[in-house]
UniProtKB/TrEMBL annotation:
The keyword Transferase applies. Pfam families: FGE-sulfatase. GO terms for molecular function: formylglycine-generating oxidase activity; protein serine/threonine kinase activity. It comes from the Bacteria. InterPro entries: CTDL_fold, Sulfatase_Mod_Factor_Kinase, SUMF_dom, SUMF_sf. This is PvdO, pyoverdine responsive serine/threonine kinase. Its EC number is 2.7.11.1.
């Protein structure tokens, strides 16, 4: 009878004992015993035998429930005022980079190497939206205005596109129609750091950019194909907003660089307009390029294998990943990397955030 009634409590008590500090517990018990006389001691022993295990089981179950909250696929939001929705990813290993035989491959995508993400990692379900960024600007008064680049004809004299900067182009006015559901663009690395700093202070959690290895792990979501929906480029328009039939380059010569399908968005699309990948993440490929925290390197010869960022060298370039609404098949691939100066704002570049709950300070403090 007693065993049946208290089995659950004692199981919890046993779990608690696995991690308890026995010296501290003995000191605590000695202090309590000093409070009781002989008569009170018998009562105390009964309470210690029956009530304390139940209390400890309650505490143990709470701790267990907290662990369940990190279950892969679980979506959470750390505040209701425009905080990004986050998804817990499973831990695991993957092959980073592309093989020498992959169609469309660039030389900076190797050597292929194994990376292990052994710590709990949550990733933004979508890119940070313009509405979420606007909340940050409203609360802080931060200025991320002006000097945003676009890939376009600078004037009628040039027949092809160049990176052309415009002082009046900004995240509020990127040069095409957007509303608050679209990913924010025209933000440089300093703007991104300001945002993650604000979000961290607001939530008291260490929000940051994804490292490049975390990004590719999150984008591949367990797949090894060119894109998370497979190797067939024509299928792309079902899964991502890319340079498609509705794309309108200013140079006719560039038209042939588009995917041969229709996704029906000439510029950026509202976040999560297409199907998510196998980790439940939207727009990991296409829509807008995403900043990562790493210093750009020409190859992976010295890249960390544990998810940490590469932060060596002069760091004059940072790495963008994912491709965007104005890029074709060679650029919208899980392995594709693009070097960009950290001060540049571009009207097809945005970001998403990560949160790593880890005992490793190095991982938690990864830039930015
Ligand atoms: Ca498109």
């Amino acid at each position: 009878m007693r065993a049946g009634r208290f089995a659950w409590a004692e199981a919890g008590y046993a779990g608690f004992l696995l991690s308890v500090d026995f010296d501290a517990l003995r000191a605590f018990r000695w202090a309590i015993l000093r409070l009781f006389d002989d008569g009170g001691y018998a009562m105390f022993r009964r309470s210690l035998r029956y009530i304390l295990p139940a209390v400890l089981a309650f505490i143990f179950n709470l701790a267990h429930a907290d662990g369940e909250a990190n279950k892969p696929g679980t979506v959470f939001q750390d505040c209701t005022e425009a905080c990004p929705k986050m998804v817990w990813l499973p831990t695991g290993s993957f092959s980073m980079g592309s093989s020498a035989t992959e169609s469309g491959r660039f030389g900076n995508e190797g050597p292929v190497h194994t990376v292990t993400i052994a710590y709990p990692l949550a990733v933004g379900q979508t890119d940070v939206t313009r509405g979420e960024f606007a909340q940050f600007v409203q609360e802080t008064g931060y200025s991320a205005e002006g000097d945003c680049y676009a890939w376009e004809k600078a004037n009628t004299f040039f027949s092809t596109e160049v990176w052309n900067v415009a002082a009046d182009r900004s995240w509020r006015k990127p040069g095409y129609a957007q509303d608050d559901s679209h990913p924010v663009v025209c933000v440089n690395l300093a703007d991104v750091k300001a945002y993650t700093g604000w979000l961290s202070a607001k939530t008291k959690k260490p929000y940051r950019l994804l490292t490049e290895a975390e990004w590719e792990y999150a984008a591949r979501a367990g797949t090894t194909s060119i894109r998370y929906w497979g190797d067939d480029a024509v299928m792309t328009c079902q899964f991502a907003n890319v340079a498609d039939h509705s794309w309108q380059p200013t140079s006719v010569a560039n038209k042939e660089a588009a995917f041969n399908c229709a996704d029906n968005f000439a510029h950026s699309s509202p976040a999560a307009s297409f199907q998510p990948n196998q980790f439940g993440l939207y727009d990991m490929l296409g829509n807008v390029w995403q900043w990562t925290s790493d210093c750009y390197t020409d190859n992976y010869a010295a890249s960390p294998a544990d998810g940490k960022p590469t932060m060596s060298g002069p760091c004059t370039g940072r790495t963008l990943r994912g491709g965007s609404w104005d890029f074709g098949p060679r650029f919208v691939r899980a392995a594709r990397r693009l070097r960009t100066p950290p001060a540049f704002r571009k009207n097809q570049v945005g970001f998403r955030v990560a949160l790593a709950v880890s005992s490793s300070a190095a991982v938690s403090s990864a830039a930015p």
